[in-house]
What does this fold into?
Amino acid sequence: MLKRMDSVFSETRIVEFILSQMGEDGVLRSQSLRLQEMEDLLRTMLALIKADEPQVPFDVEWDEQQRAVVVGGYRIPALTFVRTLGDGVDVPMEVKMASGRVGHGHGRGSRAHGRA
It folds into this structure.
C-alpha cells in the first residue's frame, strides 16, 4: 500500500498532474481543474503545499475576491497555478511538451502568493 501511495502521490506525479492541465499560457485556474476522482483532489492539495518549494515549476496565486469554487463536486480554494521559468523536477518529456516547458532553462521567478 505504501508503495502505491508513493507512486500515486510522488512529487513528480503531483507536478505532472498540474502541468498536464495547464494551457499554453502556463496558467491553470482552479475552476478549470479536472478532478475526476478523490486522488485528483489530493494531488491538487499536495500541489498547493509543495508550490513554495524551489524545485516545483509553478507558483500559486490566490483569488481574494472569489475565495472558493466548486469543481467536480468538491469545494476548493479559488486560485491559479502559474508555471514558472525554472526547470523544476524531472518531468517526462510528453508533459513538458504538453505544457510548453521545453527549452525553458531560466531561473525561478518571484513568488507571488496572496497568503502565508
Q: What stands out?
A: The longest strand covers residues 58-62. Helices lie at 2-8, 11-21, 38-50, 93-99. DSSP finds four helices and five strands in the chain. Confidence is low (pLDDT under 50) at residues 87-116.
